[in-house]
Amino acid sequence: MSERADLSSKIERAAQLLLIQRHRRPGVKGWELRRSLGRRYLDIIKILDEELAKFGLKVKVVFMEEVSEPRAEDYDRALFMVTFRYPAKITDVLTAGWSIDELGALAACISIINSRGGSVRMRDLEDLLAEKLPRWRVELLLERFVRLGYLDVKDDHLSIGWRSKAEIDVDLLSLRLISYGSSG
Amino acid sequence: MSFKVKREYVERIISTCERVLRRGVDPFTIEVERYIKYLKDFLSQSSSTEDLILDLEALEALSRIVEFQGRWIRDKSFKLYFDPLIIEAKVKSLSLSDLAHVLCQALRPIASVKMISRVGFEEAAKYWLNLPPLKDRWGRLPHQIPATESMSIEDLIREKLALRGSFSEMVEEFWRRVKDSSKDGKIYYWDFIKSNSFEESVLKAYMLSYLVSYGYVGLDYDPKADDYVIIPYEEKIQVLGSNSIAVSISYDEWLRRVKDVGKS
Fold first, then answer.
1. pTM of the model
2. How far is it, in rounded angstroms, from Cα A73 to Cα A92?
3. Predicted complex ipTM exceeds 0.85
4. Least CA distance to B116: which residue of chain A?
5. Which of A30, B115, B131, B136 has the greatest number of C-beta atoms within 10 Å?
């Protein structure tokens, strides 16, 4: 097989690995990609990312812990997945099964957690949301956010979950929140 | 301190710097000035090429820390925009719909395709191929036992399979109880369904939901008490449209609300 054909087949394989959900949670670990695509899997992923840009998609890498200068082993442990390249239209998100209330509550949770250094007492967040929603609904919503991976819960504290890291530009959310309504 | 120990200390400086750089944690935990003084002292005593290289590596790691400290300050100053109090005030002032619109400006959903795995498909195919025709399966059902036993209505009531009196009588009776209870003033949902047993509370909640659905009583949410106020109507009213209020009564919630176990 020529080098070009080999590269092309590896890009196809990478697209299949990333787009087809094999486990309960979407995405593929770096080491799984390395096993399937070889040592230079990050180069393949970079080319795939350029190809996906044509369809408004991108490859998102979620590191398991905060890293400023990721190394090869950080990539191996990271989760690779395909996400929208640009923010989704609210109508599309609503069609996917979300309600306005749920999205609003998620926005509140993520921005509050982010502003308080990444972790908030569950009770504090419940009290805040209970100003806008019945308490029984707040409890159900938080449970759902944790189940879907948008939030993590540990020792009665909530933090930002893997799915939020993948799907939400947290700093942009806070910036948009602060500037919302001030321009007009 | 022996020179060997000093060398190990320099190695430790390098590994600490690398760890901080890799994990992106607060670079100001590294005492750069103290380490540089130490390296100066180390350099004056070192003679081998290996030591010089080690000193150089440590100095390079420390210079990267200084560079990271600059970046850290820049990032932190940017984070000042996200003052927790401002964010909280904004969250409180905006409606859920506004918050939803804000979220969508920063939301890039995951795109994935769900499909059955090969193992799952093989299992399904095997199950389907081994599944006997419907008529064979029906044939395997046990024959109906011809013997019958009779039960009295009292037995059925005791087994909770039948009601004493008609359901409409039960509704009327319950409606009267609600009206009587509310004569003394405002009555809250949880106060009303309070009973000695969980079963009794569930029955009351069930009957109440029936009365609400068919216009015998109304519910009004009181945010201060985080509970619903029961408003019994004198006459049954025509219910227009439909509004659902879900009130969950789990056993734990019942214990907490009714028995006040959670407060003790």
1. 0.55
2. 36
3. yes
4. A22
5. A30
Backbone angles phi, psi at B188, to 5 degrees: -90, 150
Residue of B nearest to A109 (CA): B91
B-chain CB neighbours of A87 within 8 Å are: 104-108
Q: Which long-range contacts (CB under 8 A, 24 or more apart) does B100-103 make?
A: B100/A90, B100/A100, B100/A101, B100/A103, B100/A104, B100/A107, B101/A90, B102/A107, B102/A173, B102/A176, B102/A177, B102/A180, B103/A103, B103/A104, B103/A106, B103/A107, B103/A110, B103/A168, B103/A173
Q: What is the CATH number of domain A92-183?
A: 1.10.10.10
Per CB-CB distance under 8 Å, the chain A contacts of B76 are none
Across the interface, whether the CB atoms of A115 and B83 are under 8 A apart is answered yes
The winner for highest mean pLDDT among A134-138, B18-22, B147-151 is A134-138
Output the six-digit token pair for B113: 């395709």
Q: Which fold has domain B164-263?
A: Arc Repressor Mutant, subunit A (1.10.10)
Cβ-nearest to B103 among A60, A74, A107: A107
> Domain extents for chain B?
3-78, 164-263
The Cα–Cα gap between B85 and B91 comes to 10
Give the start-to-end residue ranges of the domains of chain A. Answer: 3-86, 92-183
Residue A110 pLDDT greater than 60, yes or no: yes
pLDDT digits (tens, 9 = 90+) for B68-92: 888 878 777 665 557 788 889 999 9
Closest to B58 in 3D by CA, of B41, B70, B81, B75: B41
The Cα of B225 is separated from the nearest Cα of chain A by a number of Å equal to 11
Residues of B with CB under 8 A from a CB of A: 21-25, 68, 71, 81-84, 86-88, 90-92, 94-115, 117, 221, 226, 246-248
